[in-house]
């Protein structure tokens, strides 16, 4: 089965929920084989154990002061860092979440690598013979589901819709590896810098976490 790299996300020093969903999707297309995980942060050294506990074969820690994206809307550094990692590791498939981070970074990484990207994917399947990824995406305003198969060039980059893949309870990796991947020569001084993040405390259940949503109108 093809090798898969998950572009994980970090929130408040821990793995973001979308990372677990991406890893579940990765295990689906690798027939249970453990994927690779990339974690980007200003302080990434303490995240290796959490990555291995999520059941991956190898965790790449990309640490740089400019990688504390945290919803800043400034993604030059993550794009450059992931481009270097992907060129070095040559995964056949790269998975992002359809978050502010993934929706901005994935297309830019794809352009730099000269490959295709599929957005808002809700289904994944791999042909074992060709090792080509087929994604399912809603089209025509969500009225039709269509399948798209990637061409021959790697990596095949897919951006997955959140809350589609159940993260479940992955078995921790028995023999995983944590690799500190140096991106200092790839990441340049950003033109804009995150000054402060002010978290907004929800009054109740967050809309994206609600099991039932009731809306009214005319």
Describe this structure as you would to a colleague:
With 218 residues, the protein is an alpha/beta fold. The protein has one domain: Rossmann fold, CATH 3.40.50.620. The chain contains 4 helices and 12 strands. The strands form 3 sheets. A 7-stranded parallel sheet has the order 7-11-6-1-4-5-12, sandwiched between helices. Helix 3 crosses helix 4. The longest helix is centred in the middle third of the chain and has 14 residues. The chain is globular. The mean pLDDT is 88.
According to DSSP, the number of beta strands is 12
Rg, Cα atoms, Å: 17 Å
According to CATH, the fold-level topology is Rossmann fold
Beta-strand content: 25-35%
CATH first level: which class?
Alpha Beta
The biggest beta sheet, please?
A: 7 strands, parallel
Order of helices and strands: EEEHEHEHEHEEEEEE
Number of domains: 1
**Into which percent range does the helicity of residues fall?**
10-25%
- Given as residue ranges, the uncertain stretches (5+ residues, pLDDT < 50) are none
Main sheet: strand order: 7-11-6-1-4-5-12
* Global structural class: alpha/beta
**N/C terminus separation:** 50 Å
CATH homology-level superfamily: HUPs
Q: What spatial form do the alpha-carbon principal axes imply?
A: globular
Mean pLDDT, to the nearest integer, reads: 88
Query: Helical region count?
Result: 4
């Amino acid at each position: 089965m093809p090798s898969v790299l998950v572009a994980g996300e970090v929130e408040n020093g821990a793995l973001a929920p979308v990372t677990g969903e991406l890893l579940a999707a990765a295990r689906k297309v690798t027939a249970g084989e453990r994927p690779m995980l990339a974690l980007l942060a200003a302080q990434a050294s303490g995240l290796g154990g959490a990555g291995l506990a999520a059941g991956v074969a190898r965790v790449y820690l990309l640490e740089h002061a400019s990688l504390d994206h945290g919803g800043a809307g400034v993604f030059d550094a993550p794009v450059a860092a992931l481009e270097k990692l992907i060129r070095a590791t040559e995964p056949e498939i790269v998975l992002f979440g359809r978050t502010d981070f993934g929706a901005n970074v994935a297309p830019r990484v794809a352009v730099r690598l000269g490959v295709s990207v599929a957005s808002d994917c809700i289904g994944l399947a791999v042909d074992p013979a060709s090792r080509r990824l087929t994604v399912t995406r809603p089209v025509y305003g969500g009225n039709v589901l269509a399948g798209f198969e990637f061409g021959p060039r790697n990596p095949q980059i897919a951006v997955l819709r959140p809350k589609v893949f159940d993260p479940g309870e992955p078995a921790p990796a028995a023999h995983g590896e944590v690799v500190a991947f140096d991106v200092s020569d790839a990441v340049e001084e950003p033109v804009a810098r995150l000054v402060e993040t002010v978290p907004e405390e929800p009054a109740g259940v967050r809309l994206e976490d609600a099991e039932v949503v009731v809306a009214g109108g005319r």
